Amino acid sequence: MPIIRQGSLFDIQDLFDLEPPQRFEAIFSTLDIEPILYTIAKKSTYGAPTELNYAAMLYSLVARIVERIPTVKDLRKRLKHDFIFRMECGFLFSDNLPSEASYSRLIQKLSETTLLEKVQDKLLIQAIQEGFIDDEAVAIDATHFESRDRGIAKEKKTKPEPKKRGHKSKTEKEIYDKQKQEEEAQKSLYEKSIATQLDVLLEDLRSQVPVKPDWGIKKNSEGKNVFWFGYKAHLAVGTKSQYILRSLMSSGV
User: Fold this and answer.
1) Within 13 Å and on the Cβ side, how many CA atoms surround 195?
2) Do residues 214 and 198 make contact, with C-beta atoms less than 8 angstroms apart?
3) To 10 degrees, the CA torsion angle through 30, 33, 35, 37?
4) Which residues in 190-212 are b (16+ Cβ under 10 Å) and which e?
5) Residue-wise burial string across 33-52, b where 16 or more C-beta atoms lie within 10 A, e elsewhere
6) Burial (CB count <10 Å: 0-12, 13-18, 19+), residue 128
7) Which of 122, 140, 124 is nearest to 132 (CA)?
8) First to last CA, the chain
9) Which helix (H) or strand (E) is 79 found in, with range?
10) Nearest-5° angle of CA 114, CA 118, CA 119?
């Protein structure tokens, strides 16, 4: 299915009123994926030719979210057995179905760039210019979502040796201070105190946010602790438009 870029956006209710084929075409037509394709495409003319339809793979990942398909494995099943869905995502009849590994490599490439954020920012500016977003208030909150990876057992901390009573000698204090300085130097930015982070540039703070899945804990409505292994999404959402204005993903701690 050829995707023709359209110059304006559409209301979310208009999207719900469309049939699935028209819905996909409407969504895909607002996405400018050319910069993404340029980055992930093969740059050299040497070696084996690229046999993957990256544009269709990108569209199918978007369709997976729209259709609430939980995993890439399920997405491949849908593409394999639903010929119309496959054509709607932009795959040609002659295209081979990408493997899970191919999707994994594509997602890994995307995660190493800021291309998706730039596409999001471009859509955000367009939505503001066309009057879809005119919020006067923004709600900021965080929510957790679990990782598909198996939770890693935390290492048990060894009990520190009991401190000696009394004042340290000059030599012992010098050794202690040096040890503390070395430990502080080895800490990552987010392991250091908040006071240390105050003078750090915002770009550095965002680039060094830990994004590996980790154990998190919070209290539920009943006051009980809830544990999860995964991530935490920090969202700034327009209270009127319900549009995600800014987002950040971090470890689940």
Assistant:
1) 0
2) no
3) -170
4) eeeeeeeeeeeeeeeeeeeeeee
5) beebeeebeeeeeeeeeeeb
6) middle
7) 124
8) 43
9) helix 72-81
10) 120
Tokens for 227, please give them: 């544990």
Tens place of pLDDT for every residue, the chain, 253 residues? 444 444 555 555 555 555 666 777 777 887 888 888 888 776 555 544 467 889 999 999 999 988 889 889 999 999 999 988 998 888 988 888 999 999 998 988 888 888 888 888 888 888 888 888 888 899 998 888 888 766 676 667 777 777 767 677 778 778 777 888 887 778 888 778 888 888 888 888 877 888 888 888 888 888 888 888 888 888 999 988 888 888 888 887 6
Q: Which one, of 67, 248, 224, 61, lies nearest residue 142 by Cα?
A: 248
Distance CA 158, CA 165 (A): 21
φ, ψ (nearest 5 deg) of residue 121: -65, -40
Q: What is the dihedral of CA 163, 169, 170, 171, to 10 degrees?
A: -70
Helix, strand, or coil (residue 141): strand
Q: Which amino acid is at 199?
A: D
Amino acid at 72: V
Residue 173 has a CB neighbour count (10 Å cut-off) of 11
The ranges assigned to domains in the chain are 12-129, 135-150+187-253
